[in-house]
Amino acid sequence: MNAVRPLSLFALAIVVGGGLFVLRHNTQSTHVATPPESTTQVVVEGRSNRAEPSQTIGELTEAHVWFCRLEIKSDVVDDLEEEEYDRNTHRYTFTLQPALDATDAKQYKGCLQDWVLAHHQLRVISMERGPDRAPGGSEG
Amino acid sequence: MRKLAWLAGAVAMGAAGLYTVVSLARWEWSRALFFGLVFLAAELTFVAGAILAKLSTIERRVEAVEAAGNGGAGPDPHVLEALRGGRDDHDRFPWLQVDPRDVVTRTNVFITLVVGGGVLLTAGTWVIDKVAGRTVDPGREARLGQELEAIAYRGGLIVDDMEARARSRPDQEDDRLTSFLHPRR
To answer: Which of A61, A130, B18, B154 is 20 to 30 A from A137, comparing alpha carbons?
Structure first.
């Protein structure tokens, strides 16, 4: 009976310590240099609910994408390609250059799926390495 | 109900804490802040509830100690019993509940006794009135008149106001004045 309390405290310490370790591993920035011609293609699904009538989902998504771009060192090249699913759900594809490293990818995905704009939500469908292209130029 | 509230609070706090950690791991800072606030609110509610429960326990103990310190001088049990006996659920007319099987032998049926006694008394007084009425007839009245004549007062024994004013000297008889005041004599 007396051993239950120390064992419980030990188990609690293990869980808390493990949780903190995992949390540190996931939230610690470890950046690596990526080639300047590399790209990352991102596909997101934008939804809006009771948004301002004068604001389209495309405008909200563009603002969201550009706001999150401030947290990474890559730039959005070209315009967003829009594909309408239904009235309130649109899918967008855009390219980031240079490609995101692992930390930037997690950070950018987290920012895109976070509650950044009111009445607007993004869901990241895919975030994959795209074809290389010359920096500031055409695909190649 | 209290356990259900505690359970709901525990579930809310656990879920909020879990989602805070998950949101942090996903780099979703706004979500993490929101769930952190929910976790904090649930935790504060928990702490406040625990403190209030502890205070309530202490209050009950203090009241028990105070009651014991007064020598257990609570209200008189007889008074309490009388007060409790006067509640709404008290049966105020138990004697009206008559068991039909022994209704004949019961003597505490008050209403029946009063009504029946009133009827009997009325019948008795009616009989007495009729019997008394039969005891008076003209012959008996004539005999009673003659008997009363013997005890009737004679004239002059009592001086009324009119004779006192008419006679200057009541001790002396005046036939003319007497015939004037009492023409029949």
So the answer is: A61
